Amino acid sequence: MECKLAVSMMHDYLDDDLPQQQQRDLKEHLLSCTDCRAKFKELEQTDMLLFSLMHQPPAASDDLIGRIMGALPSSKKERRFIAWVKRHPALTAASVFLLVMLMSSLTVWNQDNGQLVVKGNDLDQVVIQGDTVIVPSGKKVSGNLTVENGKTQVYGEVNGDVTVIDGSLYQASTAHISGQVKSIDQALSWIWYKVTNMFTDVAYR
Fold first, then answer.
1. Where does the chain cross the membrane (predicted)?
2. Does one domain contain both 117 and 199?
3. Which of 1, 44, 162, 167 has the most beta carbons within 10 angstroms of its beta carbon?
4. How far is CA 205 from the centre of its chain?
5. What is the rounded distance in angstroms from the CA atom of residue 63 to the CA atom of residue 90?
6. 3-class secondary structure, 138
7. Close Cβ partners of 184 (under 8 Å, ≥ 6 residues apart)
8. Is 139 helix (H, G, I), strand (E, B) or coil?
9. Do residues 158 and 139 lie in contact, with contact meaning Cβ atoms separated by under 8 Å?
10. 154 Cβ contact list (under 8 Å, min separation 6)
11. CA nearest 42: which of 20, 75, 10?
């Protein structure tokens, strides 16, 4: 038995969580390894000290007890959490992926905030004046039109969706939008929009 494995089994042995066969293997290793035997005695003494502190009125100061508690081995709850992570690698990976996506999306949100971005197919049919995107009367945009961090004014036609992110939209009486009109003003809505668009792009590739 390797010393690293023996040390990891010592905690379970002291907690009475070690199967009989592994208890015998650990005892045999302790007889032959002086380093592990010394380590086991330290853990055993710490365990006994913890037991006495929990079952008797503490004579030591709160500071001393705090230092002793801080030097104790990892609690069973921490080991249970690590064991749960090992038993559910797919769920753990998915959670980490979603967390990374959320953090990166928030970073991009902060970087993009304030900068005008216009996306679409027929952008030659669009007029941009400062932070205002205009679809003039008599002009037709074939496909979706997305405007981030700006004002959108539609006087002509858009044969698709119009999405305005952190901006405003004005539709004249002459305007015609065949698709949906979406207005996104909050960071979480923007992140959801980005994530759904990413998966849509992957699906159609």
1. none
2. yes
3. 162
4. 26
5. 42
6. coil
7. 163, 164, 165, 166, 190, 193
8. coil
9. no
10. 135, 162, 169, 170, 171, 172, 175, 177
11. 10
DSSP for residue 73: P
Residue reference for tokens 């979706």:
144
Domain that holds residue 82: 3-87
The span from the CA of 56 to the CA of 59, in Å, is: 9
Q: Note whether 133 and 181 are same-domain residues.
A: yes
Tens digits of pLDDT across the chain (205 residues): 788 888 888 878 877 788 888 889 888 988 999 888 888 888 887 777 666 655 555 444 566 566 656 665 555 555 676 666 667 666 777 777 676 666 665 555 555 556 888 998 888 999 999 889 999 999 999 999 999 888 999 999 999 999 998 889 999 999 999 998 988 765 555 566 665 665 555 444 4
Q: What phi and psi, each to the nearest 5 degrees, are found at residue 134?
A: -120, 130
Q: Specify the residue for token string 């990374």.
A: 100
Q: State the Cα–Cα distance between residues 61 and 82, nearest whole angstrom.
A: 33
Is 50 domain-assigned? Answer: yes
Q: DSSP of 146-160, one letter per residue?
A: EEESSEEEESSEEES
Q: How many domains does the chain have?
A: 2
